[in-house]
Amino acid sequence: MTTWTPSELDAIGRAEELEISSARGDGSLTKPVTIWVVRCGDDLYVRSAVTFAKALWYRATKVSRTGHISAGGVEKDVAFVAAEREKTEEVDAAYWTKYGKYAKKIVEPCVSREAKATTIRLVPR
Predict the structure, then answer these.
(1) Domain-wise residue ranges, the chain
(2) Which CATH architecture fits 6-123?
(3) pLDDT of 12-51, one tens digit each?
(4) Is residue 1 scored above 70 in pLDDT?
(5) Calpha distance 39→12 (Å, rounded)
(6) Using CA atoms, how far apart are residues 50 and 55, in angstroms rounded to an integer?
(7) Running DSSP on this structure, what letter comes out for residue 23?
């Protein structure tokens, strides 16, 4: 299994936003969507925080299971893996730490019950 390099983790973890695309059946990529990303140890996580499981980008990750991300100068093909439930609180804390500078009403959807259910771990390929 491929792992993130320390420089990739640092760059993506520091990036304010991430561009995410899912792979289509023919191998082409969907239009990139801009979302927030957090780092927890040696892992990177994203969540759907506005329309939750209804978001088109999120639904596409569930179907394709692979795609591409771009953040902090890093371009990477990835697998989309459902996050382990035991990571939920750690991911919540990472969202508050990284994005807590924004109004509470902006961050709260990212740590809501609905958003937690959409937590995806990004795994490099």
Answers:
(1) 6-123
(2) Roll (2.30)
(3) 999 999 999 999 999 999 999 999 999 999 999 999 998 9
(4) no
(5) 8
(6) 8
(7) B
